[in-house]
Design brief:
D-Maltodextrin-Binding Protein, domain 2; alpha/beta; binds 1-O-pyrophosphono-5-O-phosphono-alpha-D-ribofuranose; 9 helices
Length: 218
């Protein structure tokens, strides 16, 4: 009899990966190998269940999934929106909850109300562009940064930022605040479009089992 092919998961490194494995354990999907903190291995295999897991940089997860190098990915909604890859988003995992917001000093609120031409610093140029151009019809200049976005309005690089807010402490400690909310975010499961057809039974079962676990948590 043919051995089942491996289902491959790409997980965004860090907090999301840890939460993902905890959630997967609840439906009996495990990977003991991955729990070894000292390992430098990149790919982890569960032979018995015919599963493989690898850790990637969050923004690369949709790329692995679109090309089929991973059948399934777990990644934040922010990354899904920003990367805009051809993949199916199949499930909201409910953890990693935060918000994409337009933030700045309180005095910048007026600039948003009066559709002024302002500069917006962000790690998420596509999301920022979509929000200002397609939802607010405000022409802005988007400045792409790679991190510590909160610095931008403080040092005068931009009037506002478009960034993730979780607890709000980074904003508070830097004299900034949420001015407008763009959208809520959380961890999502994404699936390669061909895998969804070829491995439909296994992937559908995975989604159904996860939905049950998530519903029981509510
Ligand atoms: C994210 C985000 C904010 C911060 C929000 O940054 O860009 O800076 O977390 O969290 P809070 O509301 O709980 O303070 P991250 O730590 O990912 O680092 P970055 O500066 O490299 O983007």
């Amino acid at each position: 009899m043919d051995e089942k092919r491996y289902l491959t998961f790409a997980l965004g490194k860090g907090r999301l990966a840890k939460k993902t494995l905890e959630t997967f354990e609840k439906i009996g999907v495990t990977c003991e190998e991955m729990k070894d903190k000292d390992t430098r291995k990149l790919i982890f295999v569960n032979e018995e269940q015919r599963l493989k897991f690898f850790l990637a940089k969050g923004p690369d997860v949709p790329t692995y999934v679109e090309y089929g190098a991973a059948d399934i990915g777990i990644v934040g909604k922010d990354t899904i929106l920003e990367e805009a890859r051809n993949i199916y988003e199949v499930l909201d995992l409910g953890f990693g909850k935060c918000r994409m917001c337009i933030c700045g000093p309180a005095k910048a609120k007026d600039l948003l109300l009066h559709h002024e031409l302002i500069r917006v610093a962000t790690k998420y140029p596509r999301i920022a562009k979509d929000y200002f151009y397609n939802k607010k019809y405000q022409t802005v200049e988007i400045i792409k940064l790679n991190g510590s976005i909160e610095l931008a309005p403080i040092v005068g690089l931009s009037e506002v930022i478009c960034d993730i807010v979780e607890t709000g402490s980074t904003l508070r400690e830097n004299g900034l605040e949420v001015l407008e909310e763009v959208c809520p975010l959380s961890a999502r499961m994404v699936v390669n479009q061909v895998s969804m057809k070829m491995e439909n039974e296994r992937i559908t079962k995975l989604i159904t089992d996860l939905k049950q676990v998530l519903a029981a948590q509510k």
